[in-house]
Amino acid sequence: MAATPPVRRVLMTADTVGGVWTYALELCRALAVDGVEVALATMGAPLSPGQWASAREVPGLSIHESTYRLEWMDDPWEDVRAAGKWLLELEARLEPNLIHLNGYCHGALPWRAPTLMVAHSCVLSWWEAVKGESAPSRYDRYREEVKRGLRAAGCVVAPSAAMLADAERLHGPFRATRVIANARRAESFPPGPKEDFVLAAGRLWDEAKNLAALEKIAPWLPFPVRIAGETHHPGGGDSARTCQVESLGRLTSAELAGWMSRAGVYALPARYEPFGLSILEAALAGCALVLGDIPSLREVWGDAALFVDPDDSQGLLAALRNLMEHPAERERQAARARERALTFTPRRMAEAYLELYVNVLDPKRAREEGFTYFGIGRGQS
Questions:
Q1: Roughly how many angstroms between the first and final C-alpha of the chain, as a whole number?
Q2: Which helix (H) or strand (E) holds 10?
């Protein structure tokens, strides 16, 4: 049997306004070690100077920048169509081995190369988790476009089994599935001497992060609560405001790492978080974790975090006070979190994707060589 061609050129999509950018850059950096060159097609907003600087550090990475609106933004469909045309033109010019999509709608394009798609989050599962009901009819087109893209992909990947289950329930069935956890480099988030404050990070306007819960309890805490994150919604509208906590604003990755190295506790009482890269970063930096009690975070962190009901303000208050008032317990929790975090390595993530890339390129060979997860839907890395 002829050998499967090696994966040398990948066309990958990414948005620049959320965690997908961080995920994509970490993966591209890890894939470069194996000689994989990635052409990263960006959408959503222009790259910031910091994003450009980070991208230039990755060997073999080329950036193809656009500002097309993203599928979850208000009335994006003309931009989605134009972005699809642009992506097909990139494929024709670059001739990649494989298409790695980090959005949904473009999965249904007439690609020449095999495709895989990563389900990082979605509006429908977000709405259910945050609002407690199905998304309204104004998302009907989003629902149909996303379903069509996901079902067309050669394989659908998710960073947690909980996210994959939601995607399958709302948009499936899929041709094949895989769970591959996200990763961050430990050396980018070194622990430092800890101080008596609680840190959180996230988009202040995103109800899923539930940072308003920290704003609510902050007056009853005898130590500061500091929140890093964007206050302006990329789709427009009013800025998020804080009164009881200290807003650090939008930080570079290095600046956030500095705050994490100093924070005693990292809190994210999330209602919806398919994986949580900021949590991983904080754990690597030696923070004890207080997290929303939701299936995805239970899956990722197990006994390495304290979990609180996102609606239980008193439970959140008690958990934070207990850790801050008992340094020995806080250090034990932080050690457990860091030990767990150190298992989510970029090398492990890259090897899982490389194996999957080969299997997407040659599913017949994958079946014959015993990769039984392909087409069945429950492999994990």
A1: 27
A2: strand 9-15
The order of strands in the sheet holding 156-158 is 62-65, 37-43, 9-15, 98-101, 115-118, 156-158, 177-179, 379-380
Per DSSP, the three-state class of 9 is: strand
Which contiguous run of DSSP H or E holds residue 196? Answer: strand 195-201
Tokens of 187: 């050396």
Entry pTM: 0.92
What is the SS3 assignment for 116? Answer: strand
Task: Please state whether the peptide bond connecting residue 269 to the residue before it is cis, i.e. omega within 30 degrees of 0.
Answer: no
Query: What's the CA gap between 209 and 201, in Å, rounded?
Result: 9
- From CA 38, how far away is CA 62, in angstroms rounded? 6
Tokens of 103: 């959005």
Among the listed residues 192, 187, 165, the one whose alpha carbon sits nearest the alpha carbon of residue 177: 165
**Contact between 297 and 274 (Cβ < 8 Å):** no
Other C-beta atoms closer than 10 Å to the C-beta of 114 total: 18
Phi first, then psi, for residue 289 (nearest 5°) are -115, 135
Show the DSSP H helices in the chain as ranges: 19-32, 49-56, 77-94, 123-131, 140-152, 161-171, 212-217, 253-262, 277-284, 295-301, 313-325, 327-341, 346-361, 363-368
Residue with tokens 């999957």: 356
Alpha helices in 132-222 (DSSP H): 140-152, 161-171, 212-217
305, 310, 239, 241: which is closest to 272 by C-alpha?
Answer: 310
Per-residue pLDDT of the chain (381 residues; tens, 9 = 90+): 344 557 889 999 999 988 999 999 999 999 999 999 999 999 999 999 989 999 999 999 999 999 999 999 999 999 999 999 999 999 999 999 999 999 999 999 999 999 999 999 999 999 999 999 999 999 999 999 999 999 999 999 999 999 999 999 999 999 999 999 999 999 999 999 999 999 999 887 789 999 999 999 999 999 999 999 876 555 555 444 556 788 898 888 899 999 999 999 999 999 999 999 999 999 999 999 999 999 999 999 999 999 999 999 999 999 999 999 999 999 999 999 999 999 999 999 999 999 999 999 887 766 665 554 433 333 444
d(CA 363, CA 245): 52
Of 184, 4, 27, 170, residue with least CA distance to 100: 27
